[in-house]
Amino acid sequence: MRLEDITVALRPRQPWESVDLGCAMVRRDFGRVMVLWICTVLPLWVLVCVLLRSVPEWIPLVVWWLKPLYDRVPLYFLSRAAFGVRPGFFETWKQWPRLWIRNCLPALLWRRLSFMRSFALPAQMLEGLRGAAVKKRIQTLATDGGSSGVSMTFAFSNIELAAWIGLMWGTYGLLPESAQPDWAGLFQSFDFEGTIPNAFLWWGAVCHMVIVTLVEPFYVGAGFALYLNCRTRIEGWDVELAFRRLATRLTSATAVVILAVMMIFGVQSSVQAEEDRFGRNPTPTLRDDFLKEISSNLEKIKKEPASQTDPATAVRKVLEEPEFEIHKRQNPEWVWDDDKSKDKKADSKLLGPGFLGAMLELLFWALVLGLGVWLVVYLVKNRHLFVTRSVSKVPVQAPKVLMGMNITRESLPDDIVAAARAAWAAGDFQEALSLLYRGSLSWLVNRRRVPISDSDTEEDCLVKVLQAGDKTEAEYFRQLTTAWVEVAYAVLPVSNEEMGALCDRWPFVEKGGAA
Amino acid sequence: MVVARADTLQSVELADGVEIQLRVAGPAVRSMAYMIDLLIRIGVDILVAILAFMLLPELVGMEMTNGLFLLFVFFMEWFYNVFFEAGAKGATPGQRSMKLRVMSVTGGPVSLAQAVMRNFLRVVDFMPGLYLTGIVCMLFTKRFQRLGDLVANTVVTYAEVPTFMAPHVEIRAERRAPSKVLTREEQAALLQFLERAPLWADERRIELATLARPLTEAAGVEGLRRLCGMALWLQAPEDKSGTPPSLKGAGMFRS
Fold first, then answer.
1. Which residue of A has its CA nearest to B23?
2. What is the ipTM of this complex?
3. I need a labelling partner for A312 at 20 to 30 A (CA). Which of A212, A297, B20, B237 fits?
4. Counted domains in chain A
């Protein structure tokens, strides 16, 4: 582990902020973590599913219980990625059995329900501690008594649960009806076996795994970041990093100052001075080494500052910095193309833009033609909607029986008036008026299409005729109705003159026919 | 391999070329804040229900009470967050208890329009159920924004700069100017060292001080002493009180 290579911004953070840092770390490497997850965790899941195929309701619980195993490979990857070395796939693959076997019993048995699982995992796995040592180490690390680790576990289990229920809720409508539980039956009888189909349980297990796959890496990363934060706090990693950089800067700066001084005074004089300092009897090897070093350093310096001191080069260098980059953006604009010859040229090319344009134009006209044909067909099909309805072609269901009287044309004699007169002469007044009344109704209903329905009374018929029929007919019908009602219901006698008038003025005949 | 440093600070460049850094808050702490808000809302709803159904039916009748109560629940659901987030603190009670607040991405307080937008879009984030979309979106966006945040251009950030509680101890180190010119980061590191040294073991302090040897030009305890002296000088170049300063900081010299 070299602190200089760290790929995470170190700084003492608040616990929740370091949890966020963990999320950011996982997000950065999510693809790689996913590949490792799929290759290591998914086989175990499939194994669990096969073993528990007869009791699918237990799968989510078992999968949840085995979570400490899943955490280890992502942690291995993240811990190395944090220090600048992302392990390759095969490297991690080789580590996989070792990672899972190490410390696995306590993790799966008595440490399984620990609320600081993810926070404690780095101490177990990365520092290789066991048993009581882990506990002590965690106590040292958790400066806040571990409450941040616990609340983080709480938060992530909430997120996981919410996401699981959310996913099942959202996909519930997509399940076939046979896979949906009979909720009403369930709440009535609490008979889980009979009301919840197996398919639903399997679907629940799959959704659970999807959500665990999504959330668990973030949980591991958050625990690792919390651990990093604690160590940063109590060991001053950020300060160490800053001091290391300071030392590097100062030492290199000192070297530059010394060399610059040497250059100013010239090599000879400085060698002379060294000679003086070493006294009369400097060891030749030492002096030779020193000379060699200086000359090589001088070479370096001569190469570099030559370009740096030239102002023109310096200016150019500064202008090459990203701050001085001139950003250009091209905004395409529609311009009228008046050049006809250009068009022809383009058309000659088979697959050029001209060809494409021609195709599009063809398509456009085809569309227009199609639209026109469709419009015509539509209009013809629905022409009844547009033709004004002077005389309805739709046959009105004319009533056959009104007020208990048959009014069909067939039931009446051909010459109604003659028949009425005959009846009148025979002394059957009721029959005579009835003939007239039925005949008039029959005419009005069948010929004039007065909208009389079979439930109408004499009064209704009169009103409708007055509204719809022509004036003389309506007037006649009014008189006839009055006479008929008097004869039929009040049994009042009708005078001969009245009857004669009714027969004479009978209007319901074909124009030009017999009177 | 050059990798971008993972960090929770997200810098935003404003229109006038100023760069600000936001301490964005992630899904874990926000889910906690949401839970607290949810509990508060449910509590208030229940309280109002009890009061309303005790008092109102005699005055306005049962059906009217029912309607009024449902109206109240509606406004709680839709405007609770808007009311508090557009308010002066920019945070709901739940967010305040987790020391969070809602901000515009530009670092300013959220406007009413932004608050309305980010909260009305909760419906989208809620889909297909229990904020699944929101959770996934928050996990995979750089600033931990859910869809409502992305649309309204808002972020949830930590409201307070953490205060470091250092033990109050006396330092017996001679104040001295650093022998070299230090950059801003290096000065900050020195001050951090002074502040946090009480948390560290003696060996660790000396180890760290030795790392800064090119600056102090001494190793071991002497280096540590010089380093603390320089840090003290950075805190206050001149001794104003006249007496040895009693600053919060390292008390590593008991001799």
1. A17
2. 0.85
3. A297
4. 3
